[in-house]
Design goal:
Elements lengths: L5 H16 L4 E2 L2 E2 H9 L5 E5 L4 E3 L3 H20 L7 E12 L16 E11 L4 E10 L16
Antiparallel strand pairs: 1-2, 3-4, 3-5, 5-6, 6-7
Helix pairs in contact: 2-3
């Protein structure tokens, strides 16, 4: 197999990170990021998820559950581009919760977003040594402090 186009890996990285950060990424109806934020507070509010092998550090129940649930998502994204999982040597999603607030634009109302800042970074490494990284920031609150309602969408 020849070298896989950079644009394909960039597209996969962007799509997976975007999908991971949506509210549709849930654990028992609660936003997965909020549940992981709660779970990781005692261990530094950070988690590394290996979506190639389905493991998480720290090895906590929600983090591990998310890691295992995202293995098929990675395989599906790769498959849509005709890429086998063995074309990658590492796929790591890093999350840091409770960061210092991002600077706000003067035109944004101060209550525009809810929760503490977080940073997410997805890093793919191809078998030929190339590295593809996508980062994003957002707002997240621990799920026990969430004031909304639980999703009634069926898991499946």
């Amino acid at each position: 197999m020849g070298m896989i186009a950079r644009r394909k890996f960039n597209h996969i990285t962007a799509g997976l990170l975007s999908k991971f950060l949506t509210r549709y990424n849930d654990i028992d109806g609660y936003w997965a990021l909020g549940v992981m934020y709660t779970e990781t507070r005692a261990s530094g509010s950070r988690v590394e998820i290996d979506t190639l092998h389905g493991v998480a550090q720290p090895d906590l129940p929600a983090c591990t559950s998310v890691a295992q649930a995202w293995v098929p998502n990675l395989r599906e994204a790769l498959g849509r581009h005709g890429i086998a999982p063995d074309a990658l040597t590492a796929v790591t999603l890093s999350l840091e919760f409770g960061l210092a607030p991002m600077p706000k634009l003067p035109s944004y109302p101060s209550d525009h977003k809810y929760g503490a800042d977080f940073r997410a970074s997805l890093r793919l490494q191809s078998r030929d040594g190339r590295v593809f990284v996508r980062q994003d920031r957002g707002y997240c609150t621990p799920h026990e402090e969430f004031r909304g309602t639980r999703s009634t969408r069926r898991a499946g």
